[in-house]
Amino acid sequence: MSESSVSGSGGGAMPGRSDSPAVALGPTAVVLGVLSAIGAWVPALVLITLPWAILGGALATVLGAMGIHHARRGVGRLWAAVTGTALGVLGFAGPTALLWGFGG
């Protein structure tokens, strides 16, 4: 393997490949969104994981929105960012609305 094909060696990046941190926003949002949606909506886990599910859902929503922004500019994965945003909203807004509705 020559030095020019190794990532990170001055100017040897492959065309079409992006080493931007923005590429990880969508998958990170999906992971946080899945964890928050499961933690918020599975009855056996709600009492234990509800605060973490709300925080994870908020983070998934923000990271997913950032991922959508970057994906529309050509860096990142749009489907992952949209999925992570939707799951984050499900894990954040649902339990927050329920808590707010019950006055807790």
Furnish the topology, listing elements before pairings:
Layout: H1 25-41, H2 46-72, H3 78-102
Helix pairs in contact: 1-2, 1-3, 2-3
Give the structure's gist in a few sentences:
Helix content is 66%, strand content 0%.
Keywords for this entry:
mainly alpha; transmembrane helix; disordered N terminus; transmembrane; 104 residues; single chain
Report on this model:
By secondary structure, the chain is mainly alpha-helical. Helices cover 66% and strands 0% of the residues. It has three helices and no strands. It is elongated and about 45 Å long. The relative contact order is 0.20. This is DUF4190 domain-containing protein. Keywords: Membrane, Transmembrane, Transmembrane helix.
Please work out how many helical segments DSSP would assign.
3
Q: Quick one: overall form?
A: elongated
Mean pLDDT: 84
How many strands in all?
0
Class by alpha and beta content: mainly alpha
Q: Considering DSSP H and I runs of 4 or more, what fraction of the residues is helical?
A: 55-70%
Estimated share of beta-strand residues: under 5%
Please outline the major beta sheet: none
Distance between the termini: 61 Å
What radius of gyration results from the CA coordinates?
Answer: 18 Å
Low-pLDDT parts are 1-9
Order of helices and strands: HHH
Keywords: Membrane, Transmembrane, Transmembrane helix
Organism: Streptomyces mordarskii
Transmembrane segments: 21-42, 48-66, 78-102
Protein name: DUF4190 domain-containing protein
